[in-house]
Specification:
This protein is α/β, with parallel strands linked by helices. It has one domain: Rossmann fold. 37% of the residues lie in helices and 23% in strands. It is built from 11 helices and 8 strands. Strands 1, 2, 3, 4, 5, 6, 7 and 8 form an 8-stranded mixed sheet that branches. Helix 3 crosses helix 4, helix 7 packs antiparallel against helix 11 and helix 9 runs antiparallel to helix 11. The radius of gyration is 18 Å and the shape is globular. The two termini are 33 Å apart. The model has no long low-confidence stretch (mean pLDDT 94). Bound molecules: S-adenosylmethionine. S-adenosylmethionine binds next to helix 4.
Length: 267
């Protein structure tokens, strides 16, 4: 954290993204179909850039490993994975030691202007959907370079999921959240980027596990991780009460996810 300026990373992110191994275990995986869609839409015309892909907010590398596996069949292998939080990035480094990584935030990228073909943000752009970050991303991209944003979102149309979300919402208190849509407004009337494609749900994705697994999934969300022990226990009781109404202890529970894809091009 010492390299980051004060205020560059939201406090909830700093306090909530610190248990990398828990995050790895209880967060969903991206599907092959979804990651292939990202790869098919990368900008590939330039061969004189520092990197083909800069990933911001790579965290423990859930998306990174998936895309790197698939990129082995392609030319685009100059990949830089970054995250502002050393705790998360160290998990990625342990699992993928050969990959180039760097600690940085989206608003202060330690790279020259026009040095990147594509910037990817998986499950994270809402944390830094500010004019400052957008200008910084535009600075490092080459003209016609692409910024690709992806998210996996729990399907709130399912009754028990909606009730779990109602509990979760009690803990947000102004923390940036993808479903608030601020990230999308950042691109309205934005002279630097034009929208190439927005797909609300690419393919079908589902997480599955028993009641304890689902409980741990919700407990691994940043706004819960950062609570003190007493508040955490209270949240756990609330989540468990919802799950107890709907499921038995050993039942396999399915949690449907929407895979959202948003791609813009630097004008
Ligand atoms: C929900 S995690 C997503 C991690 C990973 N991309 C994935 O798909 O699992 C959000 C990530 O955004 C990062 N993040 C938060 N604020 C950021 C900022 N200002 N600049 C860059 N990354 C940031 C966090 O450190 C965290 O690793």
């Amino acid at each position: 954290m010492s390299m980051l300026k004060r205020g560059e990373v939201h406090r909830t992110a700093v306090e909530g993204f610190k248990e990398g191994t828990v995050y790895e275990k209880y967060r969903p995986e991206y599907t092959d179909e979804f990651v292939s869609h990202v790869i098919e839409n990368l900008y590939t015309e330039r061969h004189d850039t520092d990197y083909d892909i800069l990933e911001l907010g790579a965290g423990t590398g859930k998306f990174t490993r998936k895309i790197l596996d698939k990129l082995t069949n392609f030319q685009l292998q100059r990949y830089l994975a970054t995250d502002p939080l050393e705790d998360f990035l160290s998990v990625l480094r342990q699992q993928t030691p050969e990959l180039t990584t760097s600690v940085c935030s989206a608003s202060s990228i330690p790279l020259p202007s026009c040095s990147i073909q594509n910037v990817i943000c998986a499950q994270c752009f809402h944390w830094f959907a500010t004019g400052e970050s957008i200008s910084e991303i535009a600075r490092v991209l080459v003209p016609r370079g692409r910024l690709i944003l992806v998210w996996l979102t729990r399907d709130f149309e399912i009754g028990w999921v909606r009730k779990m979300e109602e509990v979760l919402t009690l803990y947000y208190d102004g923390t940036p959240r993808k479903i608030m849509g601020v990230w999308k407004k950042a691109f309205e009337n934005c002279p630097t980027f034009r929208c190439v494609e927005h797909i609300d749900s690419v393919g079908s994705n589902v997480m599955k596990g028993n009641k304890n697994f689902m409980l741990n999934h919700f407990m691994s969300i940043s706004v819960i991780v950062r609570l003190d022990i007493e508040e955490k226990l209270k949240a756990e009781r609330k989540f468990r009460a919802v799950l107890d109404v709907h499921f038995t202890d050993d039942e396999i529970i399915y949690l449907p996810l929407k895979s959202e894809y948003f791609c813009v091009e630097k004008v």
